[in-house]
Amino acid sequence: MTETNFATRLAAVMQAHDSLVCVGLDPEPAKFPSHLQHAPRAIFEFNRAIVDATADLVCAYKPQIAHYAALGAEAQLADTIAYIRDRAPQVPVILDSKRGDIGSTAAKYAEEAFGRYGADAVTINPYLGFDAAEPFLEYADKGIVVLCRTSNAGAREFQDLEVGGKKLYQIVAEHVAQHWNARGNCLLVVGATYPAELADIRARTGEMTFLVPGVGAQGGDVELAVRSGMTKAGSGLVINSSRGILYAGSGADFAVAARRATLELRTAINAARR
Amino acid sequence: MTETNFATRLAAVMQAHDSLVCVGLDPEPAKFPSHLQHAPRAIFEFNRAIVDATADLVCAYKPQIAHYAALGAEAQLADTIAYIRDRAPQVPVILDSKRGDIGSTAAKYAEEAFGRYGADAVTINPYLGFDAAEPFLEYADKGIVVLCRTSNAGAREFQDLEVGGKKLYQIVAEHVAQHWNARGNCLLVVGATYPAELADIRARTGEMTFLVPGVGAQGGDVELAVRSGMTKAGSGLVINSSRGILYAGSGADFAVAARRATLELRTAINAARR
Description:
Two copies of one chain form a homodimer. In chain A, α3 (about 40-55) crosses α13 and α11 packs across α13. In chain A, α11 links the parallel β9 (about 210) and β10 (about 235-240). By secondary structure, chain A is α/β, with parallel strands linked by helices. The model of chain A has no long low-confidence stretch (mean pLDDT about 95). In chain A, strands 2-1-10-9-8-5-4-3 form an eight-stranded parallel sheet, sandwiched between helices. In chain A, strands 6-7 form a two-stranded antiparallel ribbon. Chain A is globular. The first copy, chain A, has one domain: Alpha-Beta Barrel (TIM Barrel), CATH 3.20.20. The first copy, chain A, contains 13 helices and ten strands. Chains A and B meet through α4, α6, α7, α8 and β6 of A and α4, α6, α7, α8 and β6 of B.
Protein backbone atom coordinates (compact mmCIF):
# COMPACT_ATOMS: atom_id res chain seq x y z
CA MET A 1 0.00 0.00 0.00
CA THR A 2 2.69 2.51 -0.88
CA GLU A 3 1.55 3.62 -4.33
CA THR A 4 -0.70 6.40 -3.11
CA ASN A 5 -0.94 8.47 0.02
CA PHE A 6 -2.87 7.45 3.10
CA ALA A 7 -5.82 9.78 2.53
CA THR A 8 -6.40 8.44 -0.97
CA ARG A 9 -6.24 4.83 0.16
CA LEU A 10 -8.53 5.49 3.10
CA ALA A 11 -11.10 7.25 0.94
CA ALA A 12 -11.05 4.37 -1.55
CA VAL A 13 -11.79 1.71 1.04
CA MET A 14 -14.42 3.87 2.75
CA GLN A 15 -16.22 3.99 -0.57
CA ALA A 16 -15.63 0.37 -1.60
CA HIS A 17 -16.83 -0.98 1.76
CA ASP A 18 -19.40 1.78 2.31
CA SER A 19 -17.95 1.99 5.79
CA LEU A 20 -16.42 4.36 8.30
CA VAL A 21 -15.90 1.53 10.81
CA CYS A 22 -12.46 0.85 12.23
CA VAL A 23 -12.00 -2.28 14.31
CA GLY A 24 -9.62 -1.81 17.20
CA LEU A 25 -7.48 -4.91 17.61
CA ASP A 26 -6.94 -4.74 21.37
CA PRO A 27 -6.50 -8.35 22.44
CA GLU A 28 -7.24 -9.27 26.04
CA PRO A 29 -6.63 -12.99 26.35
CA ALA A 30 -8.75 -13.24 29.52
CA LYS A 31 -11.75 -12.33 27.36
CA PHE A 32 -10.97 -14.82 24.59
CA PRO A 33 -13.30 -17.80 24.08
CA SER A 34 -12.20 -20.81 26.06
CA HIS A 35 -10.84 -22.76 23.07
CA LEU A 36 -8.32 -19.96 22.48
CA GLN A 37 -7.43 -19.20 26.09
CA HIS A 38 -4.40 -21.44 26.16
CA ALA A 39 -3.72 -21.85 22.46
CA PRO A 40 -0.23 -21.07 21.18
CA ARG A 41 -0.25 -17.69 19.44
CA ALA A 42 -3.76 -17.13 20.77
CA ILE A 43 -3.58 -13.40 20.07
CA PHE A 44 -2.76 -13.90 16.42
CA GLU A 45 -5.40 -16.59 16.04
CA PHE A 46 -7.99 -14.36 17.68
CA ASN A 47 -7.07 -11.40 15.47
CA ARG A 48 -7.07 -13.56 12.35
CA ALA A 49 -10.60 -14.72 13.05
CA ILE A 50 -11.72 -11.12 13.63
CA VAL A 51 -10.09 -9.95 10.40
CA ASP A 52 -11.58 -12.83 8.42
CA ALA A 53 -15.01 -11.98 9.79
CA THR A 54 -14.89 -8.23 9.21
CA ALA A 55 -12.47 -7.39 6.38
CA ASP A 56 -15.22 -6.49 3.89
CA LEU A 57 -17.01 -4.24 6.39
CA VAL A 58 -14.32 -1.89 7.64
CA CYS A 59 -12.22 1.06 6.48
CA ALA A 60 -9.30 0.38 8.83
CA TYR A 61 -7.88 -1.79 11.58
CA LYS A 62 -6.29 -0.20 14.62
CA PRO A 63 -4.10 -2.40 16.82
CA GLN A 64 -3.41 -0.68 20.15
CA ILE A 65 0.20 -1.53 20.88
CA ALA A 66 0.05 -1.61 24.70
CA HIS A 67 -2.10 -4.71 24.50
CA TYR A 68 0.79 -6.48 22.77
CA ALA A 69 3.65 -4.85 24.66
CA ALA A 70 2.25 -5.79 28.08
CA LEU A 71 2.36 -9.43 26.99
CA GLY A 72 5.61 -9.43 25.03
CA ALA A 73 3.57 -10.23 21.93
CA GLU A 74 5.37 -8.05 19.38
CA ALA A 75 5.74 -10.97 16.99
CA GLN A 76 2.00 -11.60 17.03
CA LEU A 77 1.38 -7.91 16.36
CA ALA A 78 3.72 -8.04 13.37
CA ASP A 79 2.06 -11.23 12.15
CA THR A 80 -1.40 -9.67 12.54
CA ILE A 81 -0.42 -6.68 10.42
CA ALA A 82 1.16 -8.97 7.83
CA TYR A 83 -2.02 -11.04 7.77
CA ILE A 84 -4.16 -7.94 7.15
CA ARG A 85 -1.81 -7.00 4.29
CA ASP A 86 -2.34 -10.43 2.75
CA ARG A 87 -6.02 -10.95 3.48
CA ALA A 88 -7.29 -7.40 2.98
CA PRO A 89 -4.59 -5.35 1.26
CA GLN A 90 -6.98 -2.49 0.64
CA VAL A 91 -7.62 -1.93 4.38
CA PRO A 92 -5.06 0.35 6.06
CA VAL A 93 -3.60 -0.38 9.47
CA ILE A 94 -3.36 2.40 12.06
CA LEU A 95 -0.82 1.56 14.75
CA ASP A 96 -2.20 3.16 17.90
CA SER A 97 0.85 3.93 19.99
CA LYS A 98 0.42 7.65 20.85
CA ARG A 99 4.16 8.21 20.70
CA GLY A 100 5.86 11.50 21.42
CA ASP A 101 9.51 12.33 22.09
CA ILE A 102 12.24 14.71 20.95
CA GLY A 103 13.14 14.56 17.27
CA SER A 104 16.04 12.12 17.33
CA THR A 105 13.95 9.67 19.36
CA ALA A 106 10.76 10.31 17.44
CA ALA A 107 12.65 9.11 14.36
CA LYS A 108 13.12 5.77 16.12
CA TYR A 109 9.41 5.55 16.92
CA ALA A 110 8.59 6.31 13.28
CA GLU A 111 10.94 3.50 12.31
CA GLU A 112 9.10 1.22 14.75
CA ALA A 113 5.69 2.04 13.24
CA PHE A 114 6.50 2.26 9.55
CA GLY A 115 9.67 0.19 9.20
CA ARG A 116 9.35 -2.62 11.68
CA TYR A 117 5.56 -3.03 11.59
CA GLY A 118 4.77 -1.56 8.17
CA ALA A 119 1.78 0.36 9.51
CA ASP A 120 -0.06 2.78 7.23
CA ALA A 121 -0.66 5.31 9.98
CA VAL A 122 0.35 5.99 13.57
CA THR A 123 -1.12 7.97 16.46
CA ILE A 124 1.11 10.60 18.11
CA ASN A 125 0.90 12.96 21.09
CA PRO A 126 1.25 16.70 20.39
CA TYR A 127 2.63 17.87 23.76
CA LEU A 128 6.25 18.21 22.56
CA GLY A 129 5.37 20.34 19.54
CA PHE A 130 6.04 20.31 15.82
CA ASP A 131 9.75 19.46 15.80
CA ALA A 132 8.96 16.28 17.69
CA ALA A 133 6.23 15.39 15.18
CA GLU A 134 8.29 16.16 12.08
CA PRO A 135 10.13 12.79 11.95
CA PHE A 136 6.69 11.18 11.57
CA LEU A 137 5.31 13.85 9.23
CA GLU A 138 8.23 13.31 6.84
CA TYR A 139 6.57 10.04 5.84
CA ALA A 140 4.37 11.79 3.30
CA ASP A 141 2.48 8.67 2.19
CA LYS A 142 1.59 7.65 5.75
CA GLY A 143 -1.15 8.93 8.04
CA ILE A 144 -0.10 10.84 11.17
CA VAL A 145 -2.96 10.89 13.64
CA VAL A 146 -2.46 13.60 16.27
CA LEU A 147 -4.23 13.47 19.64
CA CYS A 148 -6.51 16.49 19.87
CA ARG A 149 -9.50 15.82 22.11
CA THR A 150 -9.25 12.39 23.71
CA SER A 151 -12.27 10.30 24.69
CA ASN A 152 -11.55 9.92 28.41
CA ALA A 153 -13.40 11.79 31.16
CA GLY A 154 -10.21 13.49 32.32
CA ALA A 155 -9.45 14.96 28.91
CA ARG A 156 -10.72 18.32 30.18
CA GLU A 157 -7.91 18.75 32.72
CA PHE A 158 -5.44 20.20 30.25
CA GLN A 159 -7.16 20.00 26.85
CA ASP A 160 -9.88 22.47 27.93
CA LEU A 161 -7.58 25.08 29.42
CA GLU A 162 -8.38 28.51 28.00
CA VAL A 163 -5.61 30.18 26.06
CA GLY A 164 -6.49 33.65 24.80
CA GLY A 165 -10.14 32.81 24.21
CA LYS A 166 -9.50 29.35 22.78
CA LYS A 167 -9.13 26.00 24.43
CA LEU A 168 -5.91 24.06 24.16
CA TYR A 169 -7.49 21.31 22.03
CA GLN A 170 -8.75 23.98 19.62
CA ILE A 171 -5.25 25.39 19.31
CA VAL A 172 -3.83 21.91 18.73
CA ALA A 173 -6.46 21.34 16.03
CA GLU A 174 -5.61 24.63 14.32
CA HIS A 175 -1.83 24.18 14.50
CA VAL A 176 -2.15 20.71 12.99
CA ALA A 177 -4.61 21.79 10.29
CA GLN A 178 -2.72 24.94 9.34
CA HIS A 179 0.95 24.01 9.84
CA TRP A 180 1.66 20.37 10.62
CA ASN A 181 -0.48 19.19 7.70
CA ALA A 182 1.66 20.72 4.96
CA ARG A 183 1.99 17.31 3.30
CA GLY A 184 -1.72 16.54 3.69
CA ASN A 185 -0.98 13.48 5.84
CA CYS A 186 -2.42 14.52 9.21
CA LEU A 187 -5.54 13.29 10.97
CA LEU A 188 -6.84 14.18 14.43
CA VAL A 189 -8.08 12.04 17.32
CA VAL A 190 -11.41 13.38 18.59
CA GLY A 191 -13.43 11.27 21.01
CA ALA A 192 -17.04 10.32 20.25
CA THR A 193 -17.75 11.06 23.91
CA TYR A 194 -17.47 14.80 23.17
CA PRO A 195 -19.91 15.59 20.32
CA ALA A 196 -19.85 19.35 20.87
CA GLU A 197 -16.09 19.31 20.56
CA LEU A 198 -16.35 17.14 17.44
CA ALA A 199 -18.53 19.80 15.82
CA ASP A 200 -16.22 22.57 16.96
CA ILE A 201 -13.10 20.87 15.61
CA ARG A 202 -14.87 20.07 12.35
CA ALA A 203 -15.67 23.75 11.92
CA ARG A 204 -12.04 24.68 12.54
CA THR A 205 -10.39 22.11 10.29
CA GLY A 206 -12.47 21.81 7.13
CA GLU A 207 -12.13 18.41 5.51
CA MET A 208 -9.55 16.78 7.79
CA THR A 209 -10.21 13.20 8.77
CA PHE A 210 -10.83 12.38 12.43
CA LEU A 211 -10.08 9.10 14.15
CA VAL A 212 -12.98 8.79 16.57
CA PRO A 213 -12.64 6.44 19.55
CA GLY A 214 -15.16 6.19 22.33
CA VAL A 215 -18.22 4.47 20.88
CA GLY A 216 -19.21 1.15 22.39
CA ALA A 217 -17.64 0.36 25.77
CA GLN A 218 -16.75 4.02 26.38
CA GLY A 219 -20.36 5.13 25.89
CA GLY A 220 -20.18 7.60 23.01
CA ASP A 221 -23.43 8.00 21.02
CA VAL A 222 -22.86 6.94 17.41
CA GLU A 223 -25.55 9.03 15.76
CA LEU A 224 -24.59 12.16 17.67
CA ALA A 225 -20.90 11.66 16.97
CA VAL A 226 -21.46 11.19 13.25
CA ARG A 227 -23.79 14.17 12.88
CA SER A 228 -21.43 16.33 14.91
CA GLY A 229 -18.19 15.32 13.26
CA MET A 230 -18.81 14.40 9.64
CA THR A 231 -17.74 16.54 6.70
CA LYS A 232 -20.28 18.19 4.42
CA ALA A 233 -19.97 15.13 2.18
CA GLY A 234 -20.93 12.85 5.06
CA SER A 235 -17.49 11.37 5.57
CA GLY A 236 -14.16 12.32 7.20
CA LEU A 237 -14.54 10.00 10.19
CA VAL A 238 -12.81 6.75 11.09
CA ILE A 239 -14.99 5.47 13.92
CA ASN A 240 -13.25 2.94 16.09
CA SER A 241 -14.80 0.21 18.19
CA SER A 242 -12.61 -2.28 19.99
CA ARG A 243 -14.25 -4.08 22.90
CA GLY A 244 -17.76 -3.67 21.46
CA ILE A 245 -16.77 -5.76 18.45
CA LEU A 246 -14.01 -8.06 19.69
CA TYR A 247 -15.98 -9.25 22.69
CA ALA A 248 -19.52 -9.03 21.26
CA GLY A 249 -19.60 -12.80 21.80
CA SER A 250 -17.64 -14.90 24.24
CA GLY A 251 -18.15 -18.37 22.79
CA ALA A 252 -16.72 -20.36 19.92
CA ASP A 253 -18.79 -18.17 17.56
CA PHE A 254 -17.12 -14.95 18.69
CA ALA A 255 -16.17 -14.04 15.13
CA VAL A 256 -19.78 -14.34 14.00
CA ALA A 257 -20.81 -12.05 16.84
CA ALA A 258 -18.01 -9.65 15.90
CA ARG A 259 -19.24 -9.53 12.30
CA ARG A 260 -22.78 -8.84 13.48
CA ALA A 261 -21.57 -6.03 15.77
CA THR A 262 -19.50 -4.54 12.95
CA LEU A 263 -22.47 -4.63 10.60
CA GLU A 264 -24.68 -2.99 13.22
CA LEU A 265 -22.15 -0.23 13.78
CA ARG A 266 -21.72 0.33 10.04
CA THR A 267 -25.49 0.51 9.62
CA ALA A 268 -25.90 2.93 12.52
CA ILE A 269 -23.12 5.16 11.19
CA ASN A 270 -24.45 5.10 7.65
CA ALA A 271 -27.99 5.92 8.81
CA ALA A 272 -26.63 8.98 10.60
CA ARG A 273 -24.49 10.27 7.75
CA ARG A 274 -27.21 10.29 5.09
CA MET B 1 14.09 -3.15 44.77
CA THR B 2 10.57 -3.27 46.11
CA GLU B 3 11.17 -2.88 49.85
CA THR B 4 10.99 0.90 49.85
CA ASN B 5 9.52 3.50 47.59
CA PHE B 6 11.30 4.97 44.60
CA ALA B 7 12.16 8.31 46.21
CA THR B 8 13.86 6.60 49.15
CA ARG B 9 15.86 4.29 46.93
CA LEU B 10 16.87 7.12 44.62
CA ALA B 11 18.00 9.31 47.53
CA ALA B 12 20.06 6.44 48.94
CA VAL B 13 21.99 5.83 45.74
CA MET B 14 22.47 9.56 45.12
CA GLN B 15 24.17 9.73 48.50
CA ALA B 16 26.09 6.45 48.26
CA HIS B 17 27.48 7.30 44.81
CA ASP B 18 27.66 11.04 45.47
CA SER B 19 26.03 11.39 42.08
CA LEU B 20 23.06 12.92 40.27
CA VAL B 21 24.15 11.37 36.96
CA CYS B 22 21.75 9.17 35.00
CA VAL B 23 23.12 7.31 32.02
CA GLY B 24 20.65 7.07 29.16
CA LEU B 25 20.91 3.64 27.54
CA ASP B 26 19.96 4.63 23.99
CA PRO B 27 21.76 2.12 21.80
CA GLU B 28 22.50 3.07 18.20
CA PRO B 29 24.34 0.13 16.65
CA ALA B 30 25.76 2.28 13.85
CA LYS B 31 27.75 4.13 16.52
CA PHE B 32 29.03 1.00 18.24
CA PRO B 33 32.76 0.16 18.06
CA SER B 34 33.56 -2.06 15.13
CA HIS B 35 34.09 -5.23 17.17
CA LEU B 36 30.45 -5.01 18.31
CA GLN B 37 28.90 -3.89 15.03
CA HIS B 38 27.96 -7.37 13.93
CA ALA B 39 28.10 -9.26 17.21
CA PRO B 40 25.08 -11.28 18.23
CA ARG B 41 23.16 -9.41 20.93
CA ALA B 42 25.36 -6.39 20.28
CA ILE B 43 22.94 -4.07 22.08
CA PHE B 44 23.05 -6.09 25.27
CA GLU B 45 26.83 -6.46 25.09
CA PHE B 46 27.23 -2.73 24.55
CA ASN B 47 24.92 -1.90 27.46
CA ARG B 48 26.63 -4.42 29.71
CA ALA B 49 30.00 -2.81 29.10
CA ILE B 50 28.55 0.63 29.82
CA VAL B 51 26.93 -0.57 33.04
CA ASP B 52 30.12 -2.32 34.17
CA ALA B 53 32.06 0.88 33.54
CA THR B 54 29.67 3.28 35.26
CA ALA B 55 27.61 1.47 37.92
CA ASP B 56 29.44 3.04 40.87
CA LEU B 57 29.14 6.55 39.44
CA VAL B 58 25.42 6.95 38.68
CA CYS B 59 22.10 7.35 40.46
CA ALA B 60 20.00 5.78 37.70
CA TYR B 61 19.96 4.21 34.26
CA LYS B 62 17.39 5.31 31.70
CA PRO B 63 16.84 3.07 28.68
CA GLN B 64 14.82 4.91 26.01
CA ILE B 65 12.49 2.27 24.64
CA ALA B 66 12.22 3.52 21.04
CA HIS B 67 15.85 2.60 20.49
CA TYR B 68 14.94 -1.02 21.23
CA ALA B 69 11.49 -1.05 19.63
CA ALA B 70 12.78 0.24 16.29
CA LEU B 71 15.09 -2.76 16.12
CA GLY B 72 12.81 -5.43 17.59
CA ALA B 73 15.24 -5.70 20.50
CA GLU B 74 12.78 -6.07 23.38
CA ALA B 75 14.61 -9.15 24.67
CA GLN B 76 17.88 -7.23 24.86
CA LEU B 77 16.12 -4.43 26.74
CA ALA B 78 14.74 -6.94 29.25
CA ASP B 79 18.17 -8.54 29.58
CA THR B 80 19.80 -5.15 30.09
CA ILE B 81 17.42 -4.30 32.93
CA ALA B 82 17.94 -7.74 34.47
CA TYR B 83 21.69 -7.24 34.24
CA ILE B 84 21.48 -3.90 36.06
CA ARG B 85 19.41 -5.60 38.78
CA ASP B 86 22.14 -8.18 39.20
CA ARG B 87 25.23 -6.01 38.78
CA ALA B 88 24.02 -2.85 40.52
CA PRO B 89 20.86 -3.63 42.46
CA GLN B 90 20.97 -0.29 44.24
CA VAL B 91 20.68 1.68 40.96
CA PRO B 92 17.09 2.22 39.81
CA VAL B 93 16.03 1.87 36.18
CA ILE B 94 13.80 4.52 34.61
CA LEU B 95 12.06 3.19 31.51
CA ASP B 96 11.75 6.19 29.20
CA SER B 97 8.68 5.48 27.12
CA LYS B 98 6.57 8.67 27.54
CA ARG B 99 3.35 6.67 27.42
CA GLY B 100 -0.10 8.16 27.59
CA ASP B 101 -3.52 6.69 26.81
CA ILE B 102 -6.98 6.30 28.33
CA GLY B 103 -7.14 4.47 31.64
CA SER B 104 -7.85 0.93 30.46
CA THR B 105 -4.94 1.14 28.02
CA ALA B 106 -2.66 3.00 30.42
CA ALA B 107 -3.02 -0.02 32.71
CA LYS B 108 -1.48 -2.14 29.93
CA TYR B 109 1.41 0.29 29.55
CA ALA B 110 2.00 0.19 33.31
CA GLU B 111 2.07 -3.60 33.06
CA GLU B 112 4.64 -3.28 30.25
CA ALA B 113 6.92 -1.05 32.33
CA PHE B 114 6.58 -2.57 35.78
CA GLY B 115 5.48 -6.13 35.07
CA ARG B 116 7.20 -7.14 31.90
CA TYR B 117 10.38 -5.10 32.29
CA GLY B 118 10.47 -4.64 36.06
CA ALA B 119 11.41 -0.97 35.75
CA ASP B 120 11.56 1.18 38.89
CA ALA B 121 10.13 4.23 37.18
CA VAL B 122 8.51 5.22 33.89
CA THR B 123 8.06 8.46 31.96
CA ILE B 124 4.51 9.46 30.98
CA ASN B 125 2.84 12.22 28.94
CA PRO B 126 0.30 14.44 30.75
CA TYR B 127 -1.89 15.47 27.80
CA LEU B 128 -4.75 13.05 28.61
CA GLY B 129 -5.07 14.16 32.23
CA PHE B 130 -5.13 12.56 35.65
CA ASP B 131 -7.45 9.61 34.96
CA ALA B 132 -5.05 8.44 32.27
CA ALA B 133 -2.11 8.72 34.67
CA GLU B 134 -3.83 7.00 37.58
CA PRO B 135 -3.10 3.40 36.43
CA PHE B 136 0.59 4.30 36.68
CA LEU B 137 0.26 6.32 39.89
CA GLU B 138 -1.36 3.35 41.63
CA TYR B 139 2.08 1.75 41.73
CA ALA B 140 2.97 3.56 44.95
CA ASP B 141 6.52 2.18 45.21
CA LYS B 142 7.43 3.14 41.62
CA GLY B 143 8.47 6.49 40.20
CA ILE B 144 6.09 8.19 37.73
CA VAL B 145 7.97 10.81 35.76
CA VAL B 146 5.59 13.26 34.07
CA LEU B 147 6.65 15.34 31.07
CA CYS B 148 6.46 18.98 32.07
CA ARG B 149 8.93 21.10 30.11
CA THR B 150 10.70 19.02 27.48
CA SER B 151 14.23 19.73 26.25
CA ASN B 152 13.48 20.19 22.54
CA ALA B 153 13.42 23.54 20.76
CA GLY B 154 9.76 23.12 19.84
CA ALA B 155 8.64 22.61 23.43
CA ARG B 156 7.36 26.19 23.44
CA GLU B 157 4.63 25.55 20.85
CA PHE B 158 2.11 24.24 23.37
CA GLN B 159 3.96 24.10 26.70
CA ASP B 160 4.38 27.89 26.79
CA LEU B 161 0.80 28.79 25.94
CA GLU B 162 -0.59 31.29 28.45
CA VAL B 163 -3.54 30.12 30.49
CA GLY B 164 -4.90 32.74 32.88
CA GLY B 165 -1.50 34.25 33.60
CA LYS B 166 0.36 30.95 33.76
CA LYS B 167 1.99 28.85 31.11
CA LEU B 168 0.76 25.36 30.37
CA TYR B 169 3.95 23.73 31.68
CA GLN B 170 3.53 25.64 34.95
CA ILE B 171 -0.01 24.35 35.28
CA VAL B 172 1.14 20.81 34.56
CA ALA B 173 3.84 21.19 37.23
CA GLU B 174 1.32 22.46 39.78
CA HIS B 175 -1.32 19.82 39.02
CA VAL B 176 1.26 17.07 39.39
CA ALA B 177 2.80 18.53 42.56
CA GLN B 178 -0.53 19.28 44.23
CA HIS B 179 -2.82 16.49 43.03
CA TRP B 180 -1.17 13.70 41.06
CA ASN B 181 1.55 13.27 43.68
CA ALA B 182 -0.74 12.15 46.51
CA ARG B 183 1.34 9.00 46.94
CA GLY B 184 4.62 10.89 46.76
CA ASN B 185 5.72 8.94 43.70
CA CYS B 186 5.79 11.65 41.01
CA LEU B 187 8.77 13.28 39.33
CA LEU B 188 8.82 15.83 36.51
CA VAL B 189 10.77 16.00 33.26
CA VAL B 190 12.34 19.44 32.86
CA GLY B 191 14.95 19.96 30.16
CA ALA B 192 18.40 21.33 30.98
CA THR B 193 18.06 23.45 27.86
CA TYR B 194 15.59 25.70 29.72
CA PRO B 195 17.31 26.90 32.92
CA ALA B 196 14.84 29.71 33.60
CA GLU B 197 12.00 27.22 33.45
CA LEU B 198 13.94 24.85 35.72
CA ALA B 199 14.12 27.60 38.34
CA ASP B 200 10.48 28.48 37.87
CA ILE B 201 9.30 24.89 38.25
CA ARG B 202 11.55 24.41 41.27
CA ALA B 203 9.90 27.40 42.92
CA ARG B 204 6.43 25.95 42.21
CA THR B 205 7.05 22.38 43.33
CA GLY B 206 9.20 22.48 46.46
CA GLU B 207 11.26 19.33 46.86
CA MET B 208 10.02 17.29 43.89
CA THR B 209 12.68 15.45 41.91
CA PHE B 210 13.24 16.41 38.28
CA LEU B 211 14.53 14.16 35.54
CA VAL B 212 16.67 16.51 33.49
CA PRO B 213 17.54 15.58 29.91
CA GLY B 214 19.32 17.87 27.50
CA VAL B 215 22.92 18.11 28.68
CA GLY B 216 25.60 16.85 26.34
CA ALA B 217 24.48 16.37 22.73
CA GLN B 218 21.43 18.61 23.21
CA GLY B 219 23.56 21.49 24.43
CA GLY B 220 22.22 22.22 27.91
CA ASP B 221 24.70 23.93 30.28
CA VAL B 222 25.34 21.67 33.27
CA GLU B 223 26.30 24.33 35.81
CA LEU B 224 23.38 26.56 34.88
CA ALA B 225 20.94 23.67 34.96
CA VAL B 226 22.09 22.50 38.38
CA ARG B 227 22.07 25.95 39.94
CA SER B 228 18.64 26.66 38.44
CA GLY B 229 16.97 23.39 39.29
CA MET B 230 18.45 21.98 42.49
CA THR B 231 16.63 21.91 45.80
CA LYS B 232 17.82 23.96 48.77
CA ALA B 233 19.74 20.88 49.88
CA GLY B 234 21.57 20.76 46.53
CA SER B 235 19.79 17.70 45.20
CA GLY B 236 16.45 16.81 43.58
CA LEU B 237 17.85 16.34 40.08
CA VAL B 238 18.45 13.23 37.99
CA ILE B 239 20.61 14.57 35.19
CA ASN B 240 20.62 12.38 32.13
CA SER B 241 23.28 12.07 29.48
CA SER B 242 22.94 9.49 26.73
CA ARG B 243 25.01 10.17 23.61
CA GLY B 244 27.62 12.22 25.52
CA ILE B 245 28.51 9.15 27.58
CA LEU B 246 27.69 6.17 25.35
CA TYR B 247 29.62 7.50 22.37
CA ALA B 248 32.37 9.42 24.20
CA GLY B 249 34.72 6.96 22.53
CA SER B 250 34.25 5.00 19.34
CA GLY B 251 36.98 2.38 19.64
CA ALA B 252 37.46 -0.83 21.57
CA ASP B 253 37.97 1.28 24.72
CA PHE B 254 34.53 2.89 24.47
CA ALA B 255 33.62 1.82 28.01
CA VAL B 256 36.74 3.50 29.40
CA ALA B 257 35.76 6.67 27.56
CA ALA B 258 32.21 6.34 28.88
CA ARG B 259 33.48 6.05 32.45
CA ARG B 260 35.64 9.12 31.97
CA ALA B 261 32.69 11.11 30.56
CA THR B 262 30.48 9.99 33.44
CA LEU B 263 33.10 11.04 35.97
CA GLU B 264 33.46 14.41 34.28
CA LEU B 265 29.72 14.97 34.33
CA ARG B 266 29.47 13.92 37.98
CA THR B 267 32.30 16.28 38.87
CA ALA B 268 30.76 19.18 36.96
CA ILE B 269 27.39 18.60 38.60
CA ASN B 270 28.85 18.28 42.08
CA ALA B 271 30.92 21.43 41.64
CA ALA B 272 27.77 23.33 40.77
CA ARG B 273 25.64 22.00 43.62
CA ARG B 274 28.03 22.87 46.42
